Amino acid sequence: MTRRRVVVVTGTDTGVGKTIAAAALAATAAGAVLVVKPVQTGIADDPDRDVRVVERLTGRSVEEFTALDDPLAPDTAARREGVRIPPVAAYVDRVRALSDHHDTVLVEGAGGLLVRLDTDGGTVLDLASALAAALPDDVRLEVVVVCRAGLGTLNHTELTVRTLRARGLEPAGLVIGSWPAEPGLAERCNREDLPRVTGLPLLAVLPHGAGSLDREQFVAAAPGWFTQRTNRA
Questions:
Q1: Which residues are annotated as a binding site for Mg(2+)?
Q2: Which residues are catalytic?
Q3: How far apart are CA 195 and CA 173, in angstroms?
Q4: Do residues 171 and 199 touch, judged by C-beta distance below 8 A?
Q5: Which residues in the chain belong to E strands, given as ranges?
Q6: Which end of the chain is more exposed for a tag (fewer CB within 10 A), N or C?
Q7: What is the per-residue pLDDT across 5-31, written as a single tens digit (0 to 9) for each?
Q8: What proportions of the chain, in percent to the nearest 5, are helix, strand and coil?
Q9: Taking a C-beta distance cutoff of 8 angstroms, is the pair 54, 26 a contact?
Q10: Summary mean pLDDT of the chain
Q11: pLDDT, tens only, 55-109
């Protein structure tokens, strides 16, 4: 029997492909799967929110906890709107409760690891760390780091991985969020170097444009993007 798990999908920056990575992980996970977005910003400009993208691509269940208008960091957007948003601890409690009823709960962060999710300074890193402490023994926490393919990714990815390890969290592996159709020298070298410099497996390489596929195409193609077997079955 598969052990239940909560998977925090974080990134080295904004726009690295976290949403499509969360969708690919959801599409290939077995059993009852839920994708959660604790905080979504920018809804005034982009009604096609991250959870709706995941729902469209996979058909999996989704939940969004907090939504803010401006396309900014959550704490900044909340301050501009003059609203107080839930603290990270409240998100932890909700995710823990949801894990009782799902085999896999995927939690997509916002931007990078140190982005503040609340107006009290709580970050994506704090969320992952608190989940590790709060989840029951029969629920495993995994952290997946989504990174870019091009120049700069080695530095950004190492910084993210080192920050997780400094908090006592060993990532499950890396996902390249958008692989170009015609990779250059930097991309090809980075694909080899990312596992070497981080000591982590490269779990998946997602092709550029994967988010434009329809559901049937996405679900059929997703297993082929994973370069190593993960705890999907």
A1: 19, 50, 108
A2: 37
A3: 9
A4: no
A5: 4-11, 33-40, 61-67, 104-112, 139-147, 173-179, 202-207
A6: N
A7: 999 999 999 999 999 999 999 999 999
A8: 40, 25, 35
A9: yes
A10: 94
A11: 999 999 999 999 999 999 999 999 999 999 999 999 999 999 999 999 999 999 9
